[in-house]
Input
Amino acid sequence: MSTGAEEVFRVAVPSDDGGPATVFEHLWTPYRMAYIRGEGKPTGAHDCPFCLIPQMDDEEGLVVARGERVFAVLNLYPYNAGHLMLVPYRHVPDYTDLTPEEVAELGWFTQTAMRVVRAVSGAHGFNIGMNQGSVAGAGIADHLHQHAVPRWGGDTNFMPVIGLTRVLPQVLRETRALLAQHWPADGAPVPAQGN
Output
């Protein structure tokens, strides 16, 4: 009987060459089946997380910064510490739906996110991108959002490769507070650090 929590089981699986059994760890996450089936996915602006987050206070919504047309929010399921999403307030699915002003502010927020994360954590590089449509991997396809994922040399170590586990060195609320503290309030550029 599952409580809905993750459960880890050791399962013996024969190797391909007929040799001794190999033991793998399986992480059973039965609550994810609802996500896979599409249950609970947003059906419009009324239940879209990216439409609801701006109505929350910054700490509760993990909002780092708010602009006129775009906001920066920490990813609730980050790839790396400091994984930000830059999101237009307007509920549109496609990059081609943005106005020139939204594109400009999205670009400025992306640059600012990179500068702020470099300043506070010394990121060596970034993965910047957006998945357009569910077939392209967008978890919330109806509301455009761009990912800014900080990267460090060696950040793909044995934990994700062997242990299939990500190690994040800081809780989201602490990361949000640190990034928000360094985000320029007056629109002034953050001093560039080493690329």
In short: The chain is about 25% helix and 20% strand. The first helix runs from residue 32 to 36. The chain has two domains: 1-40, 44-182.
